[in-house]
Design a protein that fits this description.
The protein contains 4 helices and no strands. The chain has 159 residues and is mostly helical. The chain is rod-shaped, with a radius of gyration of 29 Å.
């Protein structure tokens, strides 16, 4: 057997194996990167939903405390009320920021839920009766929270 024939026969066996290995490696790397990006995007969406749900829960808690205070002014001390008033302002700022960033990550359904909440909250604030205003605000908050959780579950594929 001469050397050129041996090299040609060896190349016929080795080259296809190398080509298959290189192609398989490239496909595997590409699929891994795609999966990594999909998982990161899902994590960002989950974080956006969780953040908004947490904020909405806090706003609902504030409204509930405010209603209790309207019914029983002696239930909370002035210091306690100042604390939850301060927290309410902070959560209002956090909501505005989260809402601005949400359009990148949330579904259209979730964005519609937030829009409905904002519309209902604006209507509630038009009431001259503070008790009625807080009650309508609490209702808007509660509906938004329930609808946002449902939208998050649907968008994230969680049961």
């Amino acid at each position: 057997m001469d050397i050129p024939t041996f090299l040609a026969d060896s190349a016929k066996v080795i080259v296809p194996g190398i080509v298959v290995a290189v192609v398989a490696s490239l496909v595997t790397v590409r699929l891994s990167i795609r999966r990594f990006h999909a998982e990161k995007w899902w994590e960002r969406k989950e974080e956006a939903y969780s953040n908004l749900i947490d904020i909405m829960y806090s706003l609902k808690d504030y409204t509930t405390k405010h209603l209790v205070h309207e019914e029983d002014p002696e239930r909370f001390t002035k210091g306690e009320r100042e604390i939850w008033e301060s927290e309410w302002r902070e959560f209002g700022k956090r909501y505005a920021r989260a809402r601005s960033l949400a359009s990148m990550h949330l579904s259209k359904d979730a964005m519609a839920v937030l829009k409905t909440y904002e519309d209902e909250k604006a209507r509630a604030s038009e009431n001259d009766d503070v008790y009625r205003w807080m009650d309508d605000d609490l209702s808007a908050c509660t509906k938004c929270l329930e609808a946002l959780i449902a939208a998050a579950k649907a968008d994230l594929g969680v049961k």
